[in-house]
Amino acid sequence: MPSPDRGPQELRRVLGWTSAGAIMAGSVIGTAIFLVPSTIVRELDSVGWTFFVWVLGGLLSLGGALSYAELGAAFPEAGGEYAFLRRAYGPLWGFLFGWQQVVIGKTGSIATIATGFALFLGFFVDGLQREWLHLSWGEVGWGVTGLQFVAMTAVASFSLINCFGVGRGGAVQSFLTVLKVAAIVALAVLVLGAGGGSWDHFRQAPEHPAWTGWGAFAAALAAVLWAYDGWNNLTLVGSEIRDPDRTIPRVFLLGLLGVMGVYLLANLAYFYALPPEALKRSERVAQDVAQLVFGDFGGAAITAAAVVSTLAALNGSILSGARVSYAMARDGLFFSPLARLHPVHRTPVNALIVQASFASFLILLFGQDRAGFDRLFNYAVFGLWAFYGITALAVIVLRRTSPEVVRPYRVAGYPWVPLIFFAVAGLFCLGMIFQNPSETAIGLVFLLLGIPFYLYWCSGGKAEAHRKSSPGE
């Protein structure tokens, strides 16, 4: 592979409406719609409340996305939240977001998605759970399973694809996203058309009807918000989207409404095929529904769809995530080689390599079992939602500090839409503190460890970093 240019260059605006929409929708629709509907039914014990929370979660996510749309249309730069936060609050806040993404947030997400792909692939390939390699250093030993090998291979493969041009990565994303959306819609339509279910399932009362409280509702909403997560990936590639002032707002609006429609259609099919009590007991609801209606072939087909779904989410995360460390390095706030682009393809090759290496390290560290990635997710989720909230609030801050900036799109319902999303993000973070205090504390430590590194990089390139990262610039 040719080496990257020695100096930082500009990324190319080559992503059109289709690729941008695929990055957004493909990053959102992952494994959640195949797994979490049963969790939500168990928490709420009601068909009506289940559909309500899916709509509410979609509308809340849309509020956050439209807040980001105003920022993305006004400041279509690489790095998304990194660029918005440094303008609104100063370079430290932008750096801390980027630090969290590089150390545990985006790299952890990539590692988790890749392991999810390997787990679904294990349905077709035997032996992935077994240890394939044992590493030892003196008395210390470390086993590497087939799942970890497959996950790391997937990360390396899609990182390599994205080294050869954002247009190529966008084309792969478009293909995989169309494939998985078509599979989910086809499953739902075929289940509803097969006639093997019953509309009476929607009227059945649960065996133990009760309002289980706001805690259960919050848990269900958290699961739904996780299912809608990933829409922010679109702004990370803002400097590579053609006509960003029009494309970003339209993709956010139409894309999230489309995702909401797919999720509601899938839930409609699930409830039609299975009664509520059976849904509550299902661990892999999509596979159980497909197997019930179409036999073993249906179960295998929906598992294959889940494999494709995880690959699309993985490619979207890899493509977008590398732009954060690239933007930080370009501004003098991270290792300078990460700002270099491929001389032909104009992709942040070094940033992609570092991101893939760190994600692979996390796979080796946490990927022995699913519980390890649950811990990793809990370490990262507090910081992710804290930054979601203050980024939405940046809409208000930047309207006051940078009123001269042309805003091709202004979020409807201002200032209430960004304020409501900020409040929801705050409540989500508060819930994490009470629900997982130790893991949240560890995540905060990871985040705060970025401060001395920020001071180090600032002292090394202070003038350049300050010039490029001053708020209101």
Automatic annotation (TrEMBL):
Subcellular location: Membrane
Alphabetically ordered keywords of this record: Membrane, Transmembrane, Transmembrane helix
Main location: membrane
InterPro entries, per the entry: AA/rel_permease1, AminoAcid_Transporter
GO cellular component: membrane
Gene3D superfamilies, per the entry: Amino acid/polyamine transporter I
GO MF entry, a single one: L-amino acid transmembrane transporter activity
Bilayer-spanning residue ranges: 14-36, 48-71, 92-125, 145-166, 178-199, 211-231, 251-272, 292-314, 349-367, 379-399, 411-434, 440-458
Highest taxon listed in the record's lineage: Bacteria
Keyword Transmembrane helix: yes
Topology relative to the membrane: Multi-pass membrane protein
Entry protein name: Amino acid permease family protein
Organism lineage: Bacteria, Pseudomonadati, Pseudomonadota, Gammaproteobacteria, Methylococcales
